[in-house]
Amino acid sequence: MLSVAEAQARILADLVPTGPELVPLADSWGRIAAADIAARLDNPPADVSAMDGYAVRAADCVPGGTLSLVGESPAGHPFPGRVGPGETVRIYTGSIVPDGADAILIQENAQEDGGTVTVTVPPGAGQHIRRRGQDFAVDQVVVPAGRALTARDIGLAAAANHAWVAVRRRPVVAILSTGDEIALPGDPIAPGGITNSNTPMLAALVRACGGVPVMLPSAQDTASDIARLAHGIETADLLLTAGGASVGRYDLVQQGLERIGLTVDFWKIAMRPGKPLMHGRIGRVPVLGLPGNPVAALVCGLIFALPAIRALAGHAERSLPEDLAFLGGDLPENDRRADYLRATLSRTPDGSLLATAFNRQDSAMLHTLARSQALILRPPHAPPARAGEPCRVVRLDTLAI
Fold first, then answer.
1. What EC designation does it have (predicted)?
2. What DSSP state is assigned to residue 31?
3. Is residue 238 part of a domain?
4. Looking at the structure, do residues 263 and 244 belong to the same domain, yes or no?
């Protein structure tokens, strides 16, 4: 069995990000920048006032001195002349500083009386002026390629005068669940049957990772039906299957996909839940075969499918971040498989993060998974651990998954 780290590396090794597409800036939230976004202008585009007040020559300002008010410079309507000796121009935040002025006398430090302004507290040279290009200069990269665009980035790109941006195309992920026993949610359930929770759950995971899910009909437990439903996936960027990847008599995903060209890289990993994980390719399309038990399907989806979809989408950050916590209860020694234990999170009186594993870790218990706020990571052959000892966790409560 492969280690989790080796399996992750082999899955990610030959994934190529999707190509670029142009989208309106307003629709780019969460998309991955396909190229550097560089400023098309200086910001500010000229020296502007940082405060409401008066544009002055600092050398003219002394306590109790007076200046002649010769005009104003409202935002969008620059003063057309020049500030000469002993003169001042009324100015507002964001307005262009007139030629000749080198400081802003803020209105709190001045008294205006008709056409005269009296200085109470003089400004220093350059005070309260935002210089041209102070925020960014023309041709400066403001958003680097590979960044997932936030509202802040979109505001920055707009200020840099971009109406459209190049982003990575969302990866198309085909999802195929297998099993004679599964029925669509809401459909009649035959004796011995269950509802198909994997397909909608994995579709939500794909969306959360920035992909576009394509939910294929559920396949029966025959190699021919699996091959029939998976045929034509060449337009997808990734195929996810759920179920049928183990060694049972009716686990026929590998056999069915081999009929349409599957080459298998590996199909067992040293992980709990999720030992029967398959990886391979059908032509150019990577294939990831997840376990059929829904908890194992989602946990393996988080550990393996999420980084793969992020890689296809061009994310610079691919794997889930890990945090340090402390155990809220004792844990037994571990065997040769890495454990991903569903857990709740709380805070100790000193503010430390406390992770407490559920007593039952059955890989079919979705209710426990939905209540989980973290996965406690236990390496292979880990010795017994006591409450209060440090541990590593993957935070689920901070993910939109």
1. 2.10.1.1
2. P
3. yes
4. yes
